[in-house]
Amino acid sequence: MAHTIGASLFGARRAARPLFGAALVSLVEWFGEIGPFCLQLLRGMFVPPFEAAEFVHQLDELGAKSLPIAALAGAATGVVLALETQETLVRFGARTLLPALLIVSLMKESGPIITALLVSGRVAAGIGAELGAMKVTEQIDAMEVSAVDPFHFLVATRVLACVVMLPLLTLVADFCGIAAGWITCTLTQSISLQLFLENGMKYATFPDFLPPTLKTAAFGWIMGVVACFQGMHASGGTEGVERAATTSVVLSSVFIIVSDVFLVRLIQVVYP
Amino acid sequence: MSTPLQPSHAPPIQVHALRKSFDGHRVLAGIDLEVARGETLSVLGQSGTGKSVLLKLLVGLQRPDSGSIRIHGLQLENLSRQELTEARKRMGFLFQNAALYDSLTVLQNVCFPLERQVGLPRRQIEKLARGLLAAVGMEDHAEKLPGEISGGMQKRVGLARALALQPDILLCDEPTAGLDPITASEIDALILKLQRERGMTSVVVTHDLPSARTISDRLALMSEGRILIQGSFEELQSSRDEFVQRFLNRRN
Predict the structure, then answer these.
(1) Do the Cβ atoms of B161 and A145 come within 8 Å?
(2) What span, in angstroms and rounded, lies between the C-alpha atoms of B237 and B240?
(3) Could you tell me if B63 lies within 8 Å of chain A, comparing CB atoms?
(4) What is the ipTM, given to two decimal places?
(5) 3-class DSSP state for residue B35?
(6) What is the DSSP string of A176-203?
(7) Which residues fall within 8 angstroms of residue B157, CB to CB, at 6 or more apart?
(8) pTM of this structure
(9) Which of A135, A246, B142, B150 makes the best surface tag, with the fewest CB within 10 Å?
(10) What is the spatial distance between Cα A252 and Cα A32, in angstroms, rounded to a whole number?
(11) How far is the alpha carbon of A24 from chain B, nearest alpha carbon, in Å?
């Protein structure tokens, strides 16, 4: 089964075929099935009925409730960046560049990727487990026989919520990272917030901010699609739910990191 | 492309040469079945003989390998997703474990299909749902979550939800499984009452013989993926087939 790709890849299920061959077949099958899944998802997104109330509920559940994680991750990144780079910059006599380095680094890469990975840990596991449990207890079948399309109610709302909320959470992480970075700098050598921002923003350009922030919408799409797919294909009781949750997190994290490589290059090509 | 509607006197459920396998294991090996309008058919058989699979095929949750299923004259395999959704509005399905949405209250569970299929104001939908809950004796538990009520109560709520869209076909998967004899007979009486009131065509999958006798007009006994025999309880009793006798008399 394609949806057990994670299990096969990480040795959770013993297959009769050699492990590598089985994993390869699973990988190909998985990609073969995710295409039609995305088509059904797009139909669920753009063809009525639209589940507005459920979408708003998911914005809160997946987005607003991830706010503390995003803020904490951003702040921690800001502190670490300030501590690590400060020493190096002082050594080269370029301490004045610290605000710029901190702000640009946070906005361009650290903020988006750390937010996406941490939020995917929470959100993908949650979606995978929730839909997996609904699948194995026949709640998704019950929805279908009630003439309600689960792609409208369950999948489209969750994926769309991930796409909308990830850039917003990234903004929060960036903000907290810059604030925490400033506080860290101030503790060693006092610098006003105004000067810190002026110095930093002097070097920050439009391509440093908007495209990297918006690319997290793609990360949201990846984590939403992967988690919904794994959940909707769960089977085998509690073990199946656990497998759906685990593979949702692992696969979405891996795909986010891999896609980041391509997106970074794409942004560099579009905004040279 | 769907097949045109048959004349109204045609049986609402017609199954012909239905076959289904999973991973090379044959579950259904050619099922032929008809259920007349207003009739209740109980499908009996040992565990693992494909009874539940048959029910899921009837509602389009799974696709057959070959053979045909006609619901109200419409060939299920040929229906588009939209047409299948329309066909499902005329079918109610009671799952073996009720399959209630565990994050919604009892009332919200019954409201769920109504909110999406019936163009009525919220207050009227709630009134309809409360009426359905009253019909199954669950009106006092409307605000509880499924996890807070017993298995028998969950079955009742499942039945109310299955009836929400006023279907003319009711499919029940093991309605009395896992229930004590008293609760099981209450569920039987409830199904019988609702069938009489609404004149629905029903297919009930069970291995509870007393329950099947109570609620059915006709019984069909499955063995090894086929219908071994069908008819009234008396007709099954008079069969000389060893398996039928063993099944009816609970002998090994």
Answers:
(1) no
(2) 8
(3) no
(4) 0.90
(5) strand
(6) HHHHHHHHHHHHHS---HHHHHHHHHHH
(7) B98, B100, B106, B109, B110, B133, B136, B138, B141, B146, B149
(8) 0.88
(9) B150
(10) 17
(11) 20
